[in-house]
Design brief:
Oligomer: heterodimer
Structural class of chain A: alpha/beta
CATH architecture of the largest domain in chain B: 3-Layer(aba) Sandwich
Number of strands of chain B: 14
CATH class of the largest domain in chain B: Alpha Beta
CATH topology of chain A: Rossmann fold
Helix content of chain A: 40-55%
Largest sheet of chain B: 7 strands, mixed
Number of strands of chain A: 7
Order of helices and strands of chain A: HHHEHHEHEEEHHEHEH
Strand content of chain A: 5-15%
Radius of gyration of chain A: 18 Å
Largest sheet of chain A: 5 strands, parallel
Strand content of chain B: 15-25%
Order of helices and strands of chain B: EHEHHEHEHHEHEHEEEEHEEHEHEHH
Shape of chain B: globular
Shape of chain A: globular
Chain lengths: 281, 312
């Protein structure tokens, strides 16, 4: 898939995020938008998956350790064909299968229930370990927030993954720099993130989370890395794509009102136009 | 009762080896306590299926969850304090909520941990684990039941919490026709004056107490409840209707354990006066298992005295 195609998909994913959170009147748009390009690349390019057969035995697995950004995952799954895009508007509503945080029991394509921070990475490590034990060639991807890595369990899991040389595991840190209470370096700095993962015997790759050339190269490098797990530290912009949400911690867990929603969609439609023109050139 | 004495943690280790031979999907995880939890016997037999997670119980529960999603039957092992206490939220959210097929083997439960003292004596795990929707909670009373419970847990699809003890205890299920079933209690001694419902190591002590009571003219019925959740409602109601007086015995807090589970059943279906014998909302202390059982009124003598008092 070309970068332009990926960008178009990512923009659709972003529209789905904003629409779902607006409809739910609650949810986490900021960290969903910052990870939208990563989500898109994983599900449209990188992972061996089949939306028509979500439980395919040898599929690659994805665990959304930063589970509050479920709108990002759901919008990607919907746009990839796991379930109807219209269903995104039922997010967080009573009776909907689209729970506030990922629920593997009811949502096609969700490989692990998650949401309590720090726990998803351990499950991903378990999946990767199981693959190694059975000599299967599926790969496991897990996405963490940069605030989430303040949880001690992340480092328990990382120590184990490095120790067991789980080269079928890729940990991605969405480094948007903001958590609920403010800048991560003001709240309780996890920096330097790359050096920490290196110390836990990871192969570390630093990238721009919104540059598909860099994303593509990073996942390729991870796939080619043998004997150790990989960590991709993806420097991102929280709220990416929606002007007034960008780099604003206030949009971590808040839904846009009708007016803000209209503005957000206008921003994303403008991106569509830009991409359309880029396609014509 | 025979003279054989074996700790249920020992039975756990032996049962795992037996299970490992039968089912290649069984994997065992531990957090640097293989010698004490007795999973070391499994490690020796099946080193490729033994996973030492190091001293990181929360991560161990998550790894077990991940392994379950790819078809393994993980037995995650640690002391009850850490398996149910430290890792409670991991058990709840990563195992319970997605209803994953993880078995938690929790050893060194209750006051009989002994000399290590209060920090390691978990008297709260039954309460914690039975709160989790879908979690099966079992507390085997002896070697025979411990092995049977491990086998049944492996057959059961979904999360199971198995509670084992550190101290050696005698056999109570060495009778002809013994059959184990999740959710079924057993009448070990018929009686008409009072029902003693016990679990774990306290079953042996309760049987001994019943003998002592017999000499005083009290005919106690003794019931072994291994599965605290789902609990054998029918049997509890039946015995309560028969004797009209119920005593529960456990090396666990009287808040939230077997006693509470029995009261939950009886208060709704057959209001009966119940005396709960257990740890009375206090922390434990160092001492030998036997001395602690005696101090906290959980040995045969203490149980007999409480029952007598309750009936008078």
């Amino acid at each position: 898939m070309t970068n332009l195609e990926l960008q178009r998909h990512a923009n659709e994913v972003r529209k789905g995020i904003v629409s779902a959170v607006h409809s739910a009147k609650a949810g986490h748009p900021g960290g969903s938008l910052s990870a939208a390009d990563i989500f898109t690349f994983l599900y449209f390019e990188e992972m061996n998956i089949d939306p028509k057969n979500p439980k395919m035995e040898n599929r690659d697995r994805f665990v959304l350790s930063k589970g509050h950004t479920a709108p990002g995952l759901y919008s990607t799954l919907a746009n990839r064909g796991y379930f109807p895009v219209e269903d995104l508007l039922t997010l967080r509503k009573l009776g909907s299968y689209l729970q506030g945080h990922p629920d593997m029991k009811h949502i096609p394509g969700v490989d692990m229930s998650s949401g309590s921070l720090g726990q998803g990475i351990s499950a991903a490590v378990g999946m990767a370990l199981g693959g190694k034990m059975d000599k299967k060639d599926y790969r496991v991807y897990t996405l963490l927030g940069d605030g989430e890595i303040q949880e001690g369990q992340v480092w328990e899991a990382s120590m184990f993954a490095g120790h067991r040389k789980l080269d079928n595991l890729v940990v991605i840190v969405d480094n948007n720099g903001l958590q609920i209470d403010g800048k991560i370096e003001d709240v309780c700095s996890p920096y330097p993130i790359d050096k920490k993962f290196e110390a836990f015997n990871f192969h570390v790759i630093n990238i721009d989370a919104h540059n598909f050339d860099e994303i593509r190269a990073a996942f390729k490098e991870a796939r080619e890395t043998k004997g150790q797990p990989s960590a991709i530290i993806a420097k991102s912009t929280k709220g990416k794509g929606v002007s007034f949400m960008e780099n604003n911690a206030g949009w971590h867990g808040k839904a846009p009102n009708d007016e803000e929603y209209a503005q957000a969609m206008k921003d994303l439609e403008a991106i569509d136009e830009t991409l359309k023109k880029a396609g014509e050139n | 009762m025979s003279d054989v004495k074996i700790a249920t943690r020992e039975s756990y280790g032996n049962a795992l080896v037996e299970l490992g031979a039968k089912n290649e999907n069984v994997v065992v995880l531990d957090a640097d306590l293989a010698g004490a939890t007795k999973t070391g016997t499994f490690k020796k037999a099946y080193p490729d299926r033994f996973i030492d997670c190091g001293i990181a119980e929360c991560n161990m529960m998550g790894i077990a969850a991940g392994l379950a999603t790819v078809g393994k039957i993980p037995f995650a092992s640690s002391f009850a304090m850490f398996a149910s206490g430290r890792a409670f939220e991991q058990v709840r959210n990563s195992i319970g909520y997605p209803k994953l097929n993880v078995k938690i083997g929790a050893t060194h439960a209750g006051i009989t941990v002994g000399e290590d003292g209060a920090t390691h004596q978990c008297n709260e795990d039954i309460a914690l684990m039975r709160e989790i929707p879908g979690m099966v909670v079992m507390v085997p009373a002896d070697d025979i039941e411990a092995k049977a419970a491990v086998m049944a847990a492996a057959e059961h699809e979904g999360p199971v919490y198995l509670r084992f003890g550190r101290a050696a205890c005698g056999l109570v299920n060495d009778f002809p026709g013994y059959k184990f079933e999740i959710g079924k209690g057993t009448v070990l001694k018929d009686g008409k004056d009072v029902s003693i419902i016990a679990t774990g190591v306290c079953v042996e002590q309760s049987l001994k107490a019943a003998e002592a009571l017999k000499a005083k003219g009290i005919d106690a019925e003794v019931i072994n409840i291994c599965t605290i959740k789902p609990i054998d409602k029918d049997l509890i109601i039946k015995t309560a209707k028969k004797t009209g007086k119920v005593v529960t015995v456990e090396e666990h807090s009287v808040i939230g354990g077997l006693g509470s589970a029995v009261c939950d059943v009886l208060s709704e279906e057959c209001p009966t006066k119940v005396k709960k014998i257990g740890i009375n909302d206090v922390f434990g202390e160092s001492g030998s298992a036997g001395a602690l059982l005696a101090k906290y009124g959980l040995d045969a003598d203490g149980i007999a005295k409480s029952v007598e008092q309750f009936l008078s």
